[in-house]
């Protein structure tokens, strides 16, 4: 016979009903814990590539930072970059920002249907693209246009795709900003964001099985890390020690919900890695030098058959989620002005000025030059029309580029729509 297990009248029963914790976004003021656990520049030690995950875990509340408040590079994470390398990074980020600004203007002009910018996050993608090698494959979200721009992908082609014009390399089959460029190590962006994580792990495993040297880099926002695919990818990466970098871009907002919803009771998103025995570190995502150094460390671990690394990038989505969003209804006032990690372009510029390699006059000239290049590129792309001006591919093209040899029943369907 089963023993007595108690009932609601027990003396130890709670006197109040159950309740849930519902994270609430701050309104009208700056949250005190907007950035959790900020380390001083140079404070965090740099682990050896083969450091035990338990020892790396002791650093989970620290932050990789290189640039101090005076623009000096300090600490063990200072990367071996020349002034020319840093100027290249500065130009990459400035180009991304100018590109975004022009596309937003094109949206206001009614020339494009939709856009998503990377304002405030430019350093992360631009630095990692420079830190990795040609042949490596990135599985990005829609805020890593810096991977393409820093990788030399033609800006006109990006604009053709956004416009869905007659030269659109994707033939109007993707939303604007969902790019695809295999030759530039840029896997097709998926609107279902978390799917990129298991796909990247699978690609990395395939590279290892072939005995190749190319690694994969997976990208996800902190909000999407609550999806099942994220956890499935970490299981596979940990089990098979896949040569992959697992990037979580924590820009504090998943559309209209704050990071707390996805982070839950964990102290940081980096904590997610330790549950799967994956080394994980947090990085100042607005510090180009720190971002480059952390990407290089993770890249070297993967290339040395030491397995996956999880990087949590601390940054801020300074603008709207997309052109369909109004952040004023859910975000604190003056949030971006009070963000303690500053602006990535301003910080790298300050560092180069301190080094004596840059000045305000040259910066203004470069800004003007980049703006002119972006305007020229857009004029060229715009000359080929857009989906809004009536450039709509034939419905029969939906059957193209799917099968090497189109099955009979699909050939018949294509013929019915006039293909």
Structure, explained:
- It contains 13 helices and 7 strands.
- Helix 2 (83-108) runs antiparallel to helix 11 (344-355) and helix 2 (83-108) packs across helix 12 (360-382).
- It has helices at residues 53-57, 83-108, 122-131, 145-150, 155-163, 196-209, 228-240, 260-263, 271-274, 288-303, 344-355, 360-382, 408-416, and strands spanning 137-139, 216-221, 244-250, 253-254, 257-258, 280-284, 309-314.
- 42% of the residues are buried.
- The longest helix has 26 residues, at 83-108.
- Strand 4 and strand 5 (257-258) form a beta hairpin.
- The protein has a 5-stranded parallel β-sheet, with helices on both faces. A two-stranded antiparallel sheet has the order 4-5.
- The chain has 419 residues and is α/β, with parallel strands linked by helices.
Kindly, what is the distance between the CA atoms of the first and last residues, rounded to a whole number of angstroms? 74 Å
Segments where pLDDT lies below 50 for 5+ residues? 27-32
> For the CA atoms, what is the radius of gyration?
23 Å
Summarize the biggest pleated sheet. Answer: 5 strands, parallel
Q: Which SSEs are present, and which pair or pack?
A:
Layout: H1 53-57, H2 83-108, H3 122-131, E1 137-139, H4 145-150, H5 155-163, H6 196-209, E2 216-221, H7 228-240, E3 244-250, E4 253-254, E5 257-258, H8 260-263, H9 271-274, E6 280-284, H10 288-303, E7 309-314, H11 344-355, H12 360-382, H13 408-416
Parallel strand pairs: 1-2, 2-3, 3-7, 6-7
Antiparallel strand pairs: 4-5
Helix pairs in contact: 2-3, 2-11, 2-12, 3-10, 5-12, 6-7
């Amino acid at each position: 016979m089963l023993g007595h297990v108690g009932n609601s009248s027990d003396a130890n029963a709670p006197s109040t009903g159950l309740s849930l914790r519902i994270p609430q976004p701050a309104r009208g003021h700056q949250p005190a814990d907007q950035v959790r656990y900020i380390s001083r520049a140079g404070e965090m030690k740099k682990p050896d590539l083969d450091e035990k995950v338990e020892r790396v875990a002791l650093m989970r509340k620290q932050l990789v930072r290189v640039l101090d408040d005076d623009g000096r590079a300090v600490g063990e994470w200072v990367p071996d970059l020349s002034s020319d390398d840093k100027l290249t990074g500065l130009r990459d980020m400035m180009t991304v920002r100018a590109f975004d600004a022009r596309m937003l203007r094109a949206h206001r002009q009614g020339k494009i249907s939709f856009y998503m910018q990377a304002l405030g996050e430019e350093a992360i993608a631009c630095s990692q693209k420079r830190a990795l090698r040609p042949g490596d494959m990135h599985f990005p979200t829609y805020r890593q246009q810096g991977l393409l721009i820093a990788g030399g992908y033609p800006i006109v082609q990006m604009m053709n795709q956004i416009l869905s014009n007659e030269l659109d390399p994707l033939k109007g089959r993707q939303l604007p900003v969902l790019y695809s460029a295999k030759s530039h190590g840029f896997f097709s962006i998926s609107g279902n964001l978390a799917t990129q994580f298991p796909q990247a792990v699978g690609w990395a495993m395939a590279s290892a099985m072939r005995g190749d040297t190319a690694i994969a880099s997976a990208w996800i926002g902190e909000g999407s890390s609550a999806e099942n695919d994220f956890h499935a990818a970490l299981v596979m990466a940990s089990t098979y020690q896949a040569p992959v970098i697992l990037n979580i871009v924590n820009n504090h907002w998943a559309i209209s919900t704050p990071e707390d919803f996805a982070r839950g009771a964990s102290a940081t998103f980096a904590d997610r890695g330790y549950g799967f025995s994956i080394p994980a570190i947090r990085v100042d995502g607005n510090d180009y030098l720190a971002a480059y150094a952390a990407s290089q460390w993770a890249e070297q671990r993967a290339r040395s058959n030491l397995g996956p690394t999880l990087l949590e990038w601390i940054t801020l989505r300074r603008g709207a989620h997309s052109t369909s969003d109004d952040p004023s209804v859910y975000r604190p006032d003056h949030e971006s002005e009070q963000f303690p990690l500053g602006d990535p372009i301003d910080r790298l510029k300050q560092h180069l000025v301190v080094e004596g390699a840059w000045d305000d006059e040259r910066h203004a000239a470069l800004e003007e030059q980049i703006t002119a290049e972006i305007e020229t590129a857009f004029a060229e792309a715009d000359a080929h029309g857009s989906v809004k001006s009536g450039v709509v591919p034939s419905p029969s093209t939906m059957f193209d580029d799917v099968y090497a040899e189109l099955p009979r029943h699909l050939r018949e369907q294509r013929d019915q729509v006039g293909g």
